[in-house]
Amino acid sequence: MTNIGSGRGRTRQTQVYVRGMGGERPRVPVAPERLQEAARAKLSPADFAYIAGGAGAERTMRANLAAFERVRLIPRRLVGSRERDLSVELLGRTLPTPLLLAPIGVLESAHPEADLAVARAAAAEGVPFIFSSQASVPMEGCAAAMGESPRLFQLYWGTDDEVTRSFVRRAEACGAAAIVLTLDTTLLGWRPRDLDLGHLPFLRGRGIAQYLSDPVFRSRLEIPLPAPAVQPPRTPALIRAGSELAAKGRAFGLSPSQMRAAAARFTATYTRPDLGWDDVSRLRKWTRLPILLKGILHPDDAREAARRGVDGLIVSNHGGRQIDGEIGALDALPAVVAAAGDLPVLFDSGVRTGSDVAKALALGARAVLLGRPYAYGLALAGEAGVREVIQNVLAEFDLTLGLLGVRAARDLGPGNLAPPSLSTQP
C-alpha cells in the first residue's frame, strides 16, 4: 500500500474499519450521545445520575455544549502534512498530546476497578491523569499503576488544614507533577438528580479512599461527632447501606463504628465555604510543586492568581455540577486567557470530541481536560473502555488538525476560527 501518511487519526480509523470487516464492532460507542446512553443502560439509576447529573435545571451543562456549538472552525487548503505534531509544552515538560483526564470522584460508581483502571488506561495511552480527592482508590495505588507516567493531584480543601497538608505531602511523595486546587466546590451544588434519589455516595463510604488511607484523617476517628438531629428509620435500604459501609471499612482495616465515624467526619469537614486567596498563598508555602487553580471563570480572578504566584489556571465550571445558570466555560476562556498573562491556561467542561479540543486550543487553552466521556467508557468496558474513549478523542483531534491544514497542536489559534458574526449563525 502506498504510504499516504499516518497519525493517530488514520491509525484508529483503520483499526476500527478493519475489525469491522470481520464483524467486530467497537465496545464503546464513538458518538458522544450514544456513549452516554450506553452507559445509562449499563449503570444503576443512582450511579448514572451521580456521573451525568448537573446543578439545578442543568442550564449550565447545556450552556457548556452550546458554547462549543457557537464556535466554528475554518480550514485552510493545500497546506496540510502527512503527520501532525500533537505535543504541547506544560509546566516545563513536553506532553505527547494536549489531553489530560480530569479528576472525577466516586469512580467506583462506574466500575469496580475505579481509579485504578483509569490510571492504567491513562499510562497506556500516554495521557496524564489528575487524581481526585474524592477517589475510590488511594493515590499511592494509582501512582504505582502508572509507573513513570505523569499524574497530578486535585485537592479539595476542607476544614481540617492538617488533613489538607497531609494530602499535599502524599501527592509529593507519589510523584504528582502539580497540585490542582479546585475552587468551585467550597459547597456541594444543588443536584436534583441525586436529591430525587436521596443518594449521596459518600455516606456509603464511596469516594473517600484518600481520607480512609490518610494517617491524619484516621487519627481523627477517635474524636466523637454529634449524632444527626433526625435518625432515619431502620429500613431494608438503610440496612443494605450499612452493610456496604461496613464492607468498605474492612477494606481499610476499620471497624464498623470507625467507618461510620469516618463517613460522618468526612461529610462534616470536606467542604470549606470561607476558602480565600490567603489560603492559596499558604498552599504556595506548603509545597514546591506547581499549583494550578481549577474553576477560574472571571478575568479578575486570573489576574489575582498571577499575583499570588500560582503556575497555571484551569477554566472550568465543574462540568455544570455546581451553579445552575452559570456562564459556559468556553465562553469564559478567551477573557481569562487574555488576563492570565504568561500563565498557562487549561480548559475543562463540556469537552466531548476531538474537534472540541481543537476549538479550546484555538481559543487559547494550552491543554484540555476530558471528564464524563471517559467515565462512560469506564462503565462500559473498564480500562479498555477508557482507552477507547481516549483513542477516539485523540484520533478525531488529529484528523481535525489535518483537515484544518494545521501541522501542530501548538499552531492552533484565532486564525482557525470563524469571526463571531459567522459563528453565531444557525
Write the layout of secondary structure elements.
Blueprint: H1 8-21, H2 32-42, H3 45-52, H4 59-70, E1 88-90, E2 93-95, E3 99-101, H5 114-125, E4 129-131, H6 139-146, E5 151-155, H7 161-173, E6 179-182, H8 192-197, H9 209-212, H10 215-219, H11 236-251, H12 256-269, H13 277-286, E7 291-296, H14 299-307, E8 312-315, H15 329-340, E9 345-347, H16 354-362, E10 367-370, H17 372-404, H18 420-423
Radius of gyration: 22 Å
What's the count of strands? 10
Tell me, what is the CATH class? Alpha Beta
Strand percentage:
5-15%
Instruction: Tell me roughly what share of residues is in helical segments.
Output: 40-55%
Integer count of domains: 1
| Biggest β-sheet: strands ordered side by side in the sheet | 3-10-9-8-7-6-5-4
Structural class: alpha/beta
The residue-averaged pLDDT reads 94
Largest sheet data? 8 strands, parallel
CATH topology: TIM Barrel
End-to-end Cα distance, whole Å, is: 42 Å
Binding site for FMN: 103-105, 154, 182, 294, 316, 348-352, 371-372
GO molecular function, one term: monooxygenase activity
Pfam families: FMN_dh (PF01070)
Domain FMN hydroxy acid dehydrogenase: 24-422
